[in-house]
Structures are given as structure tokens and as C-alpha cells.
Write a structure and sequence with these properties.
Elements: H1 7-12, H2 30-53, H3 55-66, H4 71-81, H5 93-103, H6 122-129, H7 132-138
Helix pairs in contact: 2-7, 3-4
Length: 140
């Protein structure tokens, strides 16, 4: 397996894998579905924690969904990538802008789009204020 930039190096550079479970629904629906969105965010963040804590299980999930069967490739894929997954669920403008730049290659509307049009961090912010994220990683 050839690695251009390792997950460790990405993390050192401040580059994280953007979470794909952000609140991606019309903001007018947030109040109606907020409890469900918050429960989903909690479950997602618990899953991220498991990626860090349980390599064996994570590799089995990778095997199932990627259909890669080579244990060495699976193990190395995990080792190279997991550290670049942000632990606290935050999205960054730079990360969203990077995705928009890539999308702009096929959709010209993305060129004039702004990252803040695409995500609402209020639920993740709320989980931080409540201490959920800190408790999740403290091991309690």
C-alpha cells in the first residue's frame, strides 16, 4: 500500500477528516427534529470514539463496507487514517471550503458558495457546553 501523506502527518498539519454527519437539513426543520439530530450526533461521536479505542472492530467494519479482505491492507488503512478523524465532531470552514473547491470542478454553483451556508454547529456546540464530548473522551 502506498501512502502519500499519513494520518499522523495530516493531524500534525492541522488537517482533519471532516465529519459527514453534520446537520444537513433545512434550518427551518431543526427545531422539529432537534432531539433526534442531537441523539444522532451523540451516537455518531460515540462511534468516532470506538474508532480510536477499538482497532479490531473498526477493521471488521472497514472489511464489511469496503469489501477489502486483505488483513494487512485493512490494518494499514486504519493505522494511516484514524488519527486524522477529528474527535470532537467539529466542522471547519477550511474543511468545507476544500470540499466546495472539489465540487466546483463539476458544479459551478460551488464556486460562489460559502461554508457557513452548509452547516449549523449548534448541536455539536451544545454537546460541548453540556460536557458530553469531554465526558466521552475522559473514559468515565
Amino acid at each position: 500500500m502506498k501512502v502519500l501523506v499519513s494520518g499522523t502527518e495530516l493531524a500534525k498539519l492541522g488537517i482533519t477528516i471532516q465529519h459527514q454527519c453534520a446537520d444537513v437539513m433545512e434550518s427551518s426543520l431543526h427545531n422539529e427534529f432537534r432531539p433526534k439530530l442531537k441523539a444522532f450526533a451523540k451516537g455518531y461521536l460515540e462511534g468516532v470514539r470506538e474508532v480510536y479505542r477499538n482497532k479490531e472492530y473498526t477493521v471488521q467494519v472497514l472489511k464489511k463496507y469496503t469489501r477489502v479482505t486483505d488483513p494487512e491492507v485493512l490494518s494499514e488503512s486504519y493505522d494511516e487514517a484514524y488519527q486524522a478523524i477529528d474527535k470532537d465532531g467539529s466542522l471547519t470552514d477550511a474543511g468545507i471550503q476544500s470540499q466546495l473547491a472539489d465540487l466546483a470542478k463539476t458544479d459551478p454553483r460551488a464556486k460562489n458558495a460559502h461554508p457557513d451556508e452548509f452547516f449549523d454547529s449548534s448541536i455539536v456546540d451544545e454537546l460541548h457546553k453540556e460536557g458530553f464530548v469531554k465526558a466521552l473522551w475522559s473514559g468515565k
